[in-house]
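BUG-151 | component: ligand-complex export | severity: low

The export step for calcium ion jobs runs without errors, but we want the raw record kept on the ticket for reference. Input record follows.
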Amino acid sequence: MNKSILIIEDEEGLRMTLSDRLRSEGYVVDLAADGLDGLKKATSLTFDLIVLDIMLPHRSGVDVCRDIRSAGLATPILLLTARSQISDKVVGLKFGADDYVTKPFDTLELMARVEALLRRRQPYSPHRVIELGPLRMDVTGTEVTVDGKEV
Ligand code: CA
């Protein structure tokens, strides 16, 4: 299944550039142009990743990030920041963002970070089992079995 990404960004040009690029890579993209709409979508729909601008109308990206985490969602969040917003960046990471890119950024860099975050975190597969030959390990618990026998 294709991974879904929510882009919360008020600059229309950047929103379009990013969504075109991500769609061309096979991602399913949803868009929000301000903090309130973004938070609503982030908490009512399911995404594999959220790209979140910090400077947003109605509700800042930092607030959106904090609210997403207080809603109990572990969806990876990639912040978009400007060079002058170092403190916001730090606060955003503290409030649960996973990574950030500084504007202006290269689309290739953003794509690489998106891919890295999607690899690192799989929030919507709560029951993860690794199987390797006779070895079967439930990584959400402590059970490890070899040929069906617990070890
Ligand atoms: Ca902005």
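Assignee comment: Attached the raw record above. The chain is about 35% helix and 25% strand.
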